[in-house]
Amino acid sequence: QVGVVSAGVVGEENINYAIPMDRVRRLFGSLLPTVIRFNFWTGIEVDFLAKKCLVTSITTGSPAQKAGLKAGDILKRVNDQAVRDGLDWPIGIVKRKQLAAIDVSYLRQGKLRETVIKPVEYPLAPVVAKEDRKPGLKYSVYHGSYQVLPDFGPLKAVHTGVTENLQTEALSPERDERFAIVFAGYLAIPKTGLFWFNLGSDDGSKLFIDGEITIDNDDNHPMQHLSRMTRLKAGLHQVRIEYFDYTGDAELELLVEGPGVKKQPIPDSWFFRD
User: What is the pTM of this model?
Assistant: First the structure.
């Protein structure tokens, strides 16, 4: 087995937790977020598990579509670098100026073709009007022996309310394990730019920003942190945090770092609700 060590046991010798290499490959776009980090966008998605660089999707209206690329194409060369598999795509475009053109060779129906992609700045999600928003987050508490986060849509909450922060056990006084909480509202981003979020939980959790999953830290596990970079406009963004505790400690924390913001737990003053 081949894996990557993701955590160690303090006080023990040579005891570490690892994740399989296939999961590393599957998450490679998050581990090396080239377009987000360097603020450009092509609109290409590739298969990080395939033995070739297979294009899985092309965003409508994107630079890649305008360059003539389609899902099913196989990338063979990016600028002067040969492309063997999906991992070579983000690696091949990392050493370049922000909006510099990208020369691409690709196979379609067995025929080698060439094109030029002209990237644009990374598209940012629109913000939500701040008028009539109140401080805090709405929350809903659910009881159940969850091993992973459920689909909360059909479930009935035990109780709901408003909270200033991401406390857990205090919001579920009836029981200190086997419960879940959904926090929903808005996140006030102080300045446009690149932000790093870190979600830690015991057990599973997920972070959604603007309706898109940003961090998936699901599953029944001890305290574990996952992080991701994203670009956001200054202003209010929809936020949703899902969390469940099966047994043991009920811990949940969300850290942030960005322009003018040192690494810290997200301030309570950043949370708003309807």
Answer: 0.81
